[in-house]
Amino acid sequence: MATKSKPASSSSSPNSTSRKTSWSFFTVLLTVLSPVLVATLVCQLDSFEPAHFPIHELTQPPLKALKKNDHMLQGSEPVGFKQLIGPEDIAYDSNSGVIYTSCADGWVKRVTINDSVSDTIVENWVNTGGRPLGLALGHDNEVIVADAYKGLLKISGEGEVELLADEAEGVKFNLTDAGKPYGRALSYDPVTKETKVLAHDLYFANGIAVSPDQQYVVFCETTMRRCRKYYIQGKKKGSLETFIDNLPGLPDNIHHDGHGHYYIALSSEMTVALDLAIRHPFLRKLMGIYTKYVGELQVSKNSGVFIVDLEGKPTEHYCDLGLALISSGIKIGNHIYCGSLLYPYIVRLDVTEHPARATV
């Protein structure tokens, strides 16, 4: 019996192919545009507005020190391991051999250092009930504390806490807008109990140190990668000038070592991503929204300490790609001690065994 064979059918018509191509195009377009549209919508709804920085002041390449140790972690030791939560700043009392450090859990702790870190003694001294940050030793065995939530505090040798000031010119101390040009450099007179504003409109005003001759103070502007000096005595009293700019990272605290050098903590090096974020407020807004609604961004690395002389000229640089958020650095004997917002200890490095080497 003969059968009729079925004609072969075409796999697809031209119209069908066209429709599939169109759908593929729109799918790709939607995939690309959806995140952009969502990000734009969220940015419009979120009230956070980042500052616009004077980019023309950030055009020069980062400075380099004459000597550098870029493997600071090699040979470093943890002081007070797991006993110090985010030890942001360090102050050293040479008479007692004790380090005071400000921790994220509200404690100002006393650390007795020895030749071996295993013999370190950590004491929970005073809890401010806030977040202690910058520290300085007073003339009468007291510790002066800049607390993010409480204000300027004084802790007596007996551990009694006194609020010295929490406002200036009717404006409360506030870290919320520190990155905008609302930062201020302040001075407190313990005799008159007055707080004065030395400088306005600073970008992320941060660490401050008094010069050895008491003629001026040096303070850091983190996002501008610079330190400036304000004269408090002499013919230049009341004037403001640049101490050092174009730092190779973001400065945090600054300390004088008593021997003609300032130790400037650099919380992060300048990366391409960080440079773009500083130049483009929209990117910083996206970063802020991500942190607010999703989680913390990856912490930038290659943190360390930048050392300059009294004229602001770089001498040495200690850093490491494995270090992050170093917030303070001081030299005690043969060692550099570094505080951090991140680590549960103080980083210690013997600079006689692991010195900075000439870079040229």
Brief overview, please?
Helices cover 15% and strands 40% of the residues.
Mean of residue pLDDT? 85
The share of residues in extended strands comes to 35-45%
Structural class: mainly beta
Q: Write down the Rg.
A: 27 Å
Briefly note the CATH topology name.
Neuraminidase
What is the CATH C-level name?
Mainly Beta
Let me know the largest β-sheet.
6 strands, mixed
User: What's the N-to-C terminus distance?
Assistant: 98 Å
Q: Tell me the overall shape.
A: globular
Low-confidence stretches: 1-11
**Side-by-side strand order of the widest sheet:** 19-20-21-22-1-26
Number of strands: 26
Looking at CATH, the homologous superfamily is TolB, C-terminal domain
Describe this structure in words.
- The chain has 360 residues and is mainly beta.
- It has one domain (63-358): TolB, C-terminal domain (Neuraminidase, 6 Propeller), CATH 2.120.10.30.
- The protein contains three helices and 26 strands.
- Strands 19-20-21-22-1-26 form a six-stranded mixed beta sheet, with no helix packed on it. A four-stranded antiparallel beta sheet has the order 2-25-24-23, with no helix packed on it.
- Strand 24 (335-340) and strand 25 (346-350) form a beta hairpin.
- Helix 2 packs across helix 3.
- The longest helix is centred in the first third of the chain and has 32 residues, at 14-45.
- The radius of gyration is 27 Å and the shape is globular.
- Mean pLDDT is 85; it is low at 1-11.
